[in-house]
Amino acid sequence: MKLIIFGATGSLGRQVTEQALAEGHHVTAFARRPARLKLQHPRLSRISGDVLDAGTVASALDGQDAVLITLGAGHKGALRAPGTRNIVKAMQARGLRRLICLSTLGAGDSRPLLTAFWKYLMFGLLLRKAYADHQEQEAIVTASGLDWTLVRPAAFTDGPATGTYRHGFPSTEKNLKLKISRADIADFMVRQVTGEAYLLGTPALSY
Q1: From CA 111, how far away is CA 89, in angstroms rounded?
Q2: pTM beyond cutoff 0.85
Q3: 6: exposed, middle or buried (C-beta count within 10 Å: 0-12, 13-18, 19+)?
Q4: Nearest by Cα to 207 from 167, 170, 171
Q5: What would the pLDDT profile of 16-51 be if each residue is shown by its tens digit?
Q6: What span, in angstroms and rounded, lies between the C-alpha atoms of 133 and 127?
Q7: Residue 1 needs a FRET pair 20 to 30 A away by CA distance; which of 123, 129, 157, 176 works?
């Protein structure tokens, strides 16, 4: 398939790009500085652009089959939601249906899975703006009318791909480690491109 990845040069976006190529997909890496993606592949193309520029986003979607969003903004927020809004509007205008969007464990009805540390110190104080950005982003996606999947991973680690992570568990799940490697998150996201198990779903990921 022809995939476009928004945020392809981020720590997770790079993993998604590499794994999508390994699965045989054609990948367009969209980022402000796509040259930062130190990867050469015959099925990889690059688009330099700002996700907040609706025109650039819209033109980048021409000829694509599916969209993956791996946008990050650190603790600042104010990027995921407006960028996702531009992407969704462009997809709607072009009749492009499949969207796999990175969110976070703790968003929406997955909040009960968090510890008090994550609820009140991290998302309640230190990452408050980022958390609000995720919540708004999810609202945009779920109201889009697209064929979406919102992926809610626990805290990222730099560990290897294991293929043995837990996913799609309920908000009452116990004994979670509340962490997962970027490689395993990327594995899950790329699998959703051709899978329908989590269509219109919000699967949580963790070890």
Answers
A1: 28
A2: yes
A3: buried
A4: 167
A5: 999 999 999 999 999 999 999 999 999 999 999 999
A6: 10
A7: 157
